[in-house]
Amino acid sequence: TALAPEIFTRKLGAEELHLMSDDACLNGESGSACALHALQHSKMPVALQKGSRSTRHRRHNDDVVVVDDVVIAKSVASDRLGMFLQIGNATLWPDMLGCLSSVADAYANIGVHISFLEGSIPNATKLEIANSVRALSMRISLVTLTVPNLGEDIGQFLAQLEQAEGEGQQYDFILKVHTKTDINWRSLGLQSMCGTKWQVRSAIQQFHEKPDVDLIGPVGLVYGATTPLSDIYPSLWP
């Protein structure tokens, strides 16, 4: 099974993960996650525009998603979000920073964990990255970590989780993002998970509305050996 490099998941240390697939949307069910269908055949972000009482996604085929601003506001006030970024290619940092900016706009209470590979990024570049994060908001809690090049982004992510647990960090939800070199994977993943602050809030709202959902990934980037090609983002086809 292939899993997108950008995912939202419920809680640190969740023992069981239930993937929220696109099946419900393909079957015509409404809900915030269905907005990701707009990315199935397009690299454009799905923008949620704020309305007077509710927020509406753009239309894609017959899917229209409505999210109540009042309900979202309640969750934003209390949730603590952890963002875990794995930096293997520092030249792609501007894309990561754009994602982080959306998260910072959506949530005031966030912890940011950034990992670097040993020997791959100069200290001056690491400092520039850290300063760009702090410039977004003084309320961001930033932790950096330099790790050996083992296990690619997953190895970095596990090291970050171990560090966070050791320091007693507690999060209701976490977002994992890494510097995926392939532009299609990277663009689709970032746009669908954190293209705007409304997408970030919409994803978190799914966790509140569906207690059995523990993980959300971008449509078209999560697949296995038997997944129909129609459910995989076209540029990823063999």
From TrEMBL:
Listed name of the protein: Uncharacterized protein
